[in-house]
């Protein structure tokens, strides 16, 4: 059953970054209004939302203010107070995805344990409460150390190729995961409605920056055999249907060198790997999130065009008020779709926007994306090493 027939639904969004901003934009198309909870009074989502509560996403009082003001709550990142959200849900407030699912996913160790308990293939791992070299040596190299909480956009992840790399360890509760030989990194966006109906987008292929571990280039659809694409969608659907969550979920997958699919991580929200859907699919991931949490029928996930997507990152050695250099050259090229996140400050490797290139030939789209990435630079008004 829907929470309230649109256009009157008032949606609370925990977090005010670019994902929240794009959700607000989608909500406006549906005639819904949004209130944001975020500590930054000039956050990207808050700039265009109907209202903002300025406060921490961990603050019990502010979360309760948000719940009291809205018909339902959703969130744009996992670093929030799931305990309070769980109490609010028990008191009758509508929160999607459900807080108990958030609690599983926001702790990377409990997330991996959940996958293991439900016989969903994932890379071998062990818990690491306190980092020590002997545990790493015993586990075996190469390995990935992942912080249990708070990691995103390459943060909270440390790759160790040998014992010599232990000096770079993360001094936080974490887990160790085997570095499996990877053929490709894939992602599948899955939406699940209140009626239990779920639907998956076609798998995309992700290429990451080797140094910063950030998504560098996305190709849609992934260049994989049809049976592998079907298996990837089936596995992603299995994960979400096992969780029985309502909303949209980003499922990151490894395709190893033996052709086996492994679940890497789950995001209980819209995801960087789904940004191309804004331009390349009938229903984008943000509208799909709204449809799911409002109890509306899910939209078509059919693609309108092959696409390549690049993140627009702050240039190294620049901070401050952003300037996009080379944008005019990029926008002269056909099929270029530009999305700016309206962040007031740039810094090295900060996500400031993204560009999607549509082309019936995916190879041409990829070539254009690579060229545009070289042409564009996001500078700030402060230059130099800080």
Radius of gyration: 20 Å
The strand count comes to 22
Report the sheet with the most strands, covering strand number, pairing sense and barrel closure.
9 strands, antiparallel
Average pLDDT confidence is 95
Number of spatially distinct domains: 3
Report on this model:
The protein has three domains: 10-95, 3-Layer(aba) Sandwich (Rossmann fold); 124-178, ATP-grasp fold, A domain (Dna Ligase, domain 1, 2-Layer Sandwich), CATH 3.30.1490; 182-383, ATP-grasp fold, B domain (D-amino Acid Aminotransferase, Chain A, domain 1). The mean pLDDT is 95. The strands form five sheets. Strands 10, 11, 12, 13, 14, 15, 16, 19 and 20 form a nine-stranded antiparallel beta sheet that branches. By secondary structure, it is an alpha+beta fold. Strand 10 and strand 11 form a beta hairpin. It has helices spanning 18-29, 60-69, 82-90, 99-106, 108-117, 133-139, 226-243, 277-280, 285-294, 327-331, 362-375, and strands spanning 10-14, 33-38, 51-54, 72-75, 94-95, 125-128, 143-147, 157-160, 174-178, 182-192, 198-200, 204-208, 215-220, 247-256, 261-267, 307-313, 318-319, 323-325, 336-340, 351-358, 377-379, 382-383.
Task: Record keyword descriptors for this entry.
5-stranded parallel β-sheet; Rossmann fold; 11 helices; alpha+beta; D-amino Acid Aminotransferase, Chain A, domain 1; 386 residues
């Amino acid at each position: 059953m829907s929470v309230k027939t649109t256009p009157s639904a008032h949606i609370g969004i925990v977090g005010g970054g670019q994902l929240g901003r794009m959700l607000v934009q989608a909500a406006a198309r549906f005639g819904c209004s949004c209130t944001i909870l975020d500590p930054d009074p000039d956050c990207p989502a808050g700039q265009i939302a109907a209202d903002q509560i300025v406060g921490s996403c961990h603050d019990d009082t502010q979360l309760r203010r948000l719940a009291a003001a809205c018909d339902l709550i959703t969130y744009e990142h996992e670093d929030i107070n799931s305990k309070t959200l769980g109490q609010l849900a028990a008191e009758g407030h509508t929160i999607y995805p459900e807080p108990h699912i958030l609690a599983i996913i926001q702790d990377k160790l409990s997330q991996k344990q959940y996958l293991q308990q439900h016989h969903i293939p994932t890379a071998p791992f062990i818990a690491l409460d306190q980092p020590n070299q002997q545990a790493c040596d015993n586990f075996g190299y190469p390995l990935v150390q992942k912080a249990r909480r708070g990691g995103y956009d390459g943060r909270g992840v440390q790759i160790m190729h040998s014992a010599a790399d232990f000096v770079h360890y993360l001094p936080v509760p974490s887990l160790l995961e085997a570095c499996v030989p990877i053929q490709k990194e894939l992602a599948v966006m899955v939406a699940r409605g209140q009626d239990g109906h779920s639907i998956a987008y076609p798998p995309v292929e992700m290429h990451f920056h080797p140094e910063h571990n950030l998504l560098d280039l996305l190709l849609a659809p992934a260049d994989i055999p049809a049976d592998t694409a079907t298996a990837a969608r089936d596995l992603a659907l299995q994960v979400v249907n096992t969780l029985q969550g309502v909303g949209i979920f980003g499922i990151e997958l490894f395709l190893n060198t033996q052709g086996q699919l492994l679940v890497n991580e789950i995001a209980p929200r819209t995801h960087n790997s789904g940004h191309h859907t804004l331009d390349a699919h009938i229903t984008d991931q943000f509208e799909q999130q709204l449809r799911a949490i409002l109890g509306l029928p899910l939209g078509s996930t059919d693609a309108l065009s092959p696409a390549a997507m690049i993140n627009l990152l702050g240039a190294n050695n620049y901070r401050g008020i952003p300037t996009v250099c080379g944008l005019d050259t990029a926008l002269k090229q056909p099929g270029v779709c530009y999305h700016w996140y309206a962040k007031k400050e740039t810094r090295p490797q900060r996500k400031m926007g993204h560009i999607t290139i549509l082309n019936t030939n995916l190879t041409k789209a990829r070539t254009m994306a690579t060229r545009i990435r070289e042409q564009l630079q996001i500078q700030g008004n402060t230059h130099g090493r800080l």
